[in-house]
Every structure is written in C-alpha cells, then in structure tokens.
C-alpha cells in the first residue's frame, strides 16, 4: 500500500435487530433483569443479586454481539444455538429462583423481585421457543433463511 491509501474499518450497527421481535424481546429481558436486580439489592438478597447480574451481563453481551453484527464475523460458534441454550437454562433457573424468592420473602423487595423474576423467566422461555423454532441443523443457511422469510409473509 502506498501512503495515500488509508484503510478504514467501520463497525456497522444493526438497528434492524433492535426493532425486530427478537431485539425487543432481548431488551425486555434486560429491563426485567435490571428491575429484579434493583429489587433484590434493596432486599439485600445476595444469592438473587448474583444470578440477575450474571444473566444481565450475558444478555447484554448477546445484544451487543447481534447489534454490532459480530455473530457474522465470529463464526467459530453457532451463536443462535448458544443463545437458545442460554435462554432455556436461564428460564428454568429464574423460574426456580423466583419461586424460592416468593416462598421465602420477608421484605417487599424480595416479593417484587420474585414476581419480576417470573416475568423474566416467561420472556426467556418465549425467547428460547422462538430461537429453537428457527434453528435447523440439517439445512444450509440460505435455505433456512428462505423458509423463514416465506413464513413471515
């Protein structure tokens, strides 16, 4: 390369993802996780605080991954499958965690956090259902996209 040529790389934002059903669902998960974290923090329930913070960070990572289109650049993982596994296990974990919080609450913050945690578990369950419905492991990627696009019309 000569000195006159400047190579610039830009990272494009996928704003379409934020407006899609999955993007809105991920943002709703993040909001409910943050509300549950605040409630559990107000009630000083450290075991619930840790779980909500960890899942909030994982969901934030996945949103940033999809937002910056890094899932298309980091192809050594099948990101939708990782996202689906995370959603399934987190939905089960938050359902159990929230039921325990609701059964053992002594402070109102734990009661509200448990209720919001159940809402988070439902959102994670819907997310895992939509992800698992769209993932097919035995078809080429283009054929899968064609099938899902024709179903949406």
Describe this structure as you would to a colleague.
This protein has 153 residues and is an all-alpha fold. It has seven helices and no strands. Helix 2 runs antiparallel to helix 3.
- Give the percentage of residues in beta strands: under 5%
Strand segment count:
0
Largest beta-sheet details:
none
Distance between the termini: 47 Å
Number of helices: 7
Poorly predicted regions = 144-153
Q: Concise description?
A:
The protein is built from seven helices and no strands.
Task: Give structural attributes.
7 helices, 76% helix, mainly alpha, disordered C terminus, 153 residues, elongated
How is this fold's topology laid out?
Layout: H1 15-19, H2 21-42, H3 46-67, H4 70-73, H5 79-103, H6 108-134, H7 141-152
Helix pairs in contact: 2-3, 2-6, 3-5, 5-6
């Amino acid at each position: 390369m000569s000195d006159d040529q400047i190579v610039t790389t830009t990272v494009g934002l996928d704003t379409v993802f934020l407006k899609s059903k999955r993007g809105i669902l991920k943002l709703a998960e993040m909001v409910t996780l943050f509300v549950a974290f605040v409630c559990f923090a107000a009630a000083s329930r450290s075991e619930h605080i840790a779980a909500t913070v960890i899942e909030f960070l994982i969901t934030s990572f996945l949103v940033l991954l999809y937002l910056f289109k890094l899932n298309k650049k980091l192809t050594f993982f099948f990101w939708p499958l990782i996202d689906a596994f995370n959603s399934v296990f987190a939905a089960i974990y938050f359902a159990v965690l929230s039921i325990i919080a609701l059964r053992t609450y002594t402070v109102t913050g734990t009661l509200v956090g448990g209720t919001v945690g159940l809402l988070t578990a439902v959102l994670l369950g819907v997310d895992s259902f939509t992800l698992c419905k769209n993932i097919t492991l035995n078809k080429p990627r283009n054929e899968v996209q064609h099938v899902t696009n024709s179903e949406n019309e």
